[in-house]
C-alpha cells in the first residue's frame, strides 16, 4: 500500500501540557523522527511515497492539524495515489475519524502502526496473545459514534420499549469479553513461563539478557555469540518473540543468553502492559547487556528511552549500574577516525565494550567481560548425592550455601544449594559428572 508519513511537531513555546504530549519532538530532531516513522512503515512492507514535517502552533482538538495542512496533505494523496496516512503522533478517536473523512483515506497514528508491526512479527502463542490483547485495549477506546447503526436500540417491554443498549456499548461489551478471555489465556502462559524460570534456577547457569533500542543489532550479536539462527535484518522490530540459548564462556562456564523485544520511544502503554511477562526475563537476568547503535546519530536519545523503560520495569539507576553493561555496537559502520576514537573511549570508560556484531570485532573482549562479571555470582542448583558420594557433604557445607536438605529412603541425599562459578566447577569435578542440559533452548 502507498502511504504518506506526517510528523507533527508541537511548538515548544506552548504550555507545559502540550510539550509533555509531544515529548519526542523536544528530545529528538524532527528529521530523525521522520526517518524512524518511515522505517516503521517499511517494517510492514508499506511503500512510503512522501514524508513531511508539520509544525503546529495551535493543535486543533478536532483534527490536530490546521485546515491548510489538511488540504496540502489531501493534494499529496491525490498526486501520489496513496490510500494511507501515518501520523507519527497520538491521535484521539475523534481526530482519527475526522482526518479519515477529510482525506478519504485510512489514518493510523504511531501506536496503531507499532501494533500492526507487532501483529506481523508475533510467531509464538504467547506473542500472538499479547499483541491481540494490546490491540483490543487500543480499539476499545476508539469506538466513536460515526454511523446511524450506532443509535440506541430498542429494549425492554411494551410499545415504547426501554432505553436498550447502544451499538457502541454492545461492541465495547464484546471487546471486553474477548479481553477477559485473552487475559485468562495469558495467565496460563505466564504460569508456564514461571515454571520454565523455576526450572532454570535449578541449573547452575546465570542469565544474561540483551536489551536495546530496536534495530540496535541485538539479534545479530545474539547469533554471533551463540551460533543461533534468529532472524536478524536491518529493519525495526525484525524480531519480537524472546529467545533463550545456552552458550559457553571463555573459561568454560555455561550461561543462558536471552534476546528480548527491542524498545522504542513512546512505546504504547498497552504493549508495555501486555508484554510485561516477557520483559520480566530482563528482571530475572544476572547481567543485562544494553546494546547501542553507535552509528546512529540519535543513540544518546535512544539510550535514554531504553533506560526509561527499564526504570518502569523496576530496574533503578543504582541497581542498573551494577547489572548493566553497555555494548557499543556497529562500530564497523564508522569512519576510521571515528572508529578509533570510539574504541579508545570505550576502553577508558567503565562498564562499556565496543563491538561489531557483524564483523566480530570486540566480541572476544565482551565475552571475557561477561565471564569476569559473572565469576562471583551465586547460582542455585539441586543435586542428589549417591551413597558413594556422601563424603562430599562436609565440602558442600563449607563451600556452598545449603538452603534445603532431604535424606531419601535409598540412602541418597538431595540438596538445594547456592554456589559461585569456581565452586560449581569444583563440584562438577568432584562429582565426576556435571548437570546434563535437558534442552538447548527455552522459548
TrEMBL record:
Transmembrane segments: none annotated. Its cofactor is Mg(2+). Residues 165-199 form a coiled coil. Keywords: Coiled coil, Cytoplasm, GTP-binding, Magnesium, Metal-binding, Nucleotide-binding. The keyword Glycosyltransferase does not apply. InterPro entries: G_HFLX_dom, GTP-bd, GTP-bd_M, GTPase_HflX, GTPase_HflX_N, GTPase_HflX_N_sf, HflX_C, P-loop_NTPase. CDD domains: HflX. Residues 206-378 form the Hflx-type G domain. One of its GO terms (cellular component) is cytoplasm. PANTHER family: GTP-BINDING PROTEIN 6-RELATED (PTHR10229:SF0), GTP-BINDING PROTEIN HFLX (PTHR10229). GTPase that associates with the 50S ribosomal subunit and may have a role during protein synthesis or ribosome biogenesis. Belongs to the TRAFAC class OBG-HflX-like GTPase superfamily. HflX GTPase family. This is GTPase HflX.
Amino acid at each position: 500500500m502507498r502511504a504518506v508519513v506526517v510528523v507533527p511537531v508541537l511548538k515548544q513555546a506552548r504550555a507545559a501540557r502540550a510539550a509533555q504530549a509531544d515529548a519526542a519532538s523536544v528530545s529528538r530532531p524532527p528529521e530523525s523522527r521522520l526517518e524512524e516513522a518511515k522505517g516503521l512503515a517499511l517494517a510492514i512492507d508499506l511503500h512510503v511515497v512522501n514524508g513531511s514535517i508539520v509544525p503546529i502552533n495551535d493543535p486543533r482538538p478536532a483534527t490536530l492539524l490546521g485546515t491548510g495542512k489538511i488540504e496540502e496533505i489531501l493534494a499529496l494523496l491525490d498526486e501520489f495515489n496513496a490510500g494511507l496516512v501515518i501520523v507519527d503522533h497520538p491521535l484521539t478517536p475523534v481526530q482519527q475519524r475526522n482526518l479519515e473523512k477529510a482525506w478519504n483515506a485510512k489514518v493510523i497514528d504511531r501506536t496503531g502502526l507499532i501494533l500492526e508491526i507487532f501483529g506481523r512479527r508475533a510467531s509464538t502463542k504467547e506473542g500472538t496473545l499479547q499483541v491481540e490483547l494490546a490491540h483490543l485495549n487500543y480499539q476499545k477506546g476508539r469506538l466513536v459514534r460515526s454511523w446511524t447503526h450506532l443509535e440506541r436500540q430498542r429494549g425492554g417491554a411494551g410499545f415504547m420499549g426501554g432505553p436498550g443498549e447502544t451499538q457502541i456499548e454492545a461492541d465495547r461489551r464484546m471487546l471486553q469479553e474477548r479481553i477477559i478471555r485473552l487475559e485468562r489465556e495469558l495467565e496460563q502462559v505466564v504460569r508456564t513461563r514461571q515454571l520454565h524460570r523455576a526450572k532454570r534456577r535449578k541449573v547452575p547457569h546465570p542469565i544474561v539478557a540483551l536489551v536495546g533500542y530496536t534495530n540496535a543489532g541485538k539479534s545479530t550479536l545474539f547469533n554471533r555469540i551463540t551460533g543461533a539462527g534468529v532472524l536478524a535484518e536491518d529493519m525495526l522490530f525484525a524480531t519480537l518473540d524472546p529467545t533463550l540459548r545456552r552458550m559457553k564462556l571463555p573459561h568454560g562456564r555455561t550461561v543462558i543468553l536471552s534476546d528480548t523485544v527491542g524498545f522504542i520511544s513512546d512505546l504504547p502503554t498497552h504493549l508495555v502492559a501486555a508484554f510485561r511477562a516477557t520483559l520480566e526475563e530482563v528482571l530475572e537476568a544476572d547481567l543485562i547487556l544494553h546494546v547501542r547503535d553507535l552509528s546512529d546519530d540519535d543513540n544518546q536519545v535512544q539510550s535514554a528511552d531504553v533506560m526509561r523503560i527499564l526504570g518502569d520495569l523496576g530496574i533503578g539507576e543504582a541497581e542498573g549500574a551494577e547489572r548493566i553493561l553497555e555494548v557499543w555496537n556497529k562500530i564497523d559502520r564508522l569512519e576510521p577516525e571515528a572508529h578509533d576514537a570510539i574504541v579508545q573511549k570505550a576502553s577508558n570508560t567503565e562498564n562499556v565494550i565496543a563491538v561489531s556484531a557483524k564483523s566480530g570485532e570486540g566480541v572476544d573482549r565482551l565475552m571475557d567481560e561477561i565471564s569476569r562479571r559473572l565469576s562471583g555470582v551465586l547460582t542455585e542448583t539441586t543435586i542428589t548425592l549417591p551413597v558413594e558420594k556422601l563424603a562430599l557433604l562436609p565440602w558442600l557445607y563449607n563451600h556452598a550455601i545449603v538452603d534445603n536438605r532431604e535424606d531419601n529412603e535409598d540412602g541418597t541425599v538431595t540438596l538445594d544449594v547456592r554456589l559461585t562459578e569456581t565452586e560449581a566447577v569444583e563440584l562438577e569435578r568432584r562429582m565426576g559428572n556435571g548437570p546434563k542440559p535437558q534442552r538447548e533452548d527455552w522459548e
